[in-house]
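Weekly modeling sync, notes
Attendees: S.R. (lead), two postdocs, one rotation student

Agenda item 3: backlog of single-chain predictions. S.R. asked that every request posted to the team notebook include the full sequence so nobody has to chase files. The rotation student volunteered to paste the first one in as an example of the format we agreed on. Action items at the bottom.

Example entry:
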Amino acid sequence: MLSCKEVTYLLSESQDRKLALTEKMPLEMHLVMCKGCTNFKSQMKFLREACKQYVKTRGGADE
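Predicted structure, as returned to the notebook:
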């Protein structure tokens, strides 16, 4: 079983690359049982989408 620290690492890695099946399976099993890591995953998704929207509305321009 993965630790929460390993799960947060894999969730972060999944933002940059496709995880292997050997990484995904234990990750998903952990997420089923751990509300804290599930919340972390949800927060990462929210922040990623918020950043995309910010760039879209600002047109990528710097102040």
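Discussion: group reviewed the output briefly. The mean pLDDT is 92.
Action items: rotation student to repeat for the remaining queue; S.R. to check formatting next week.
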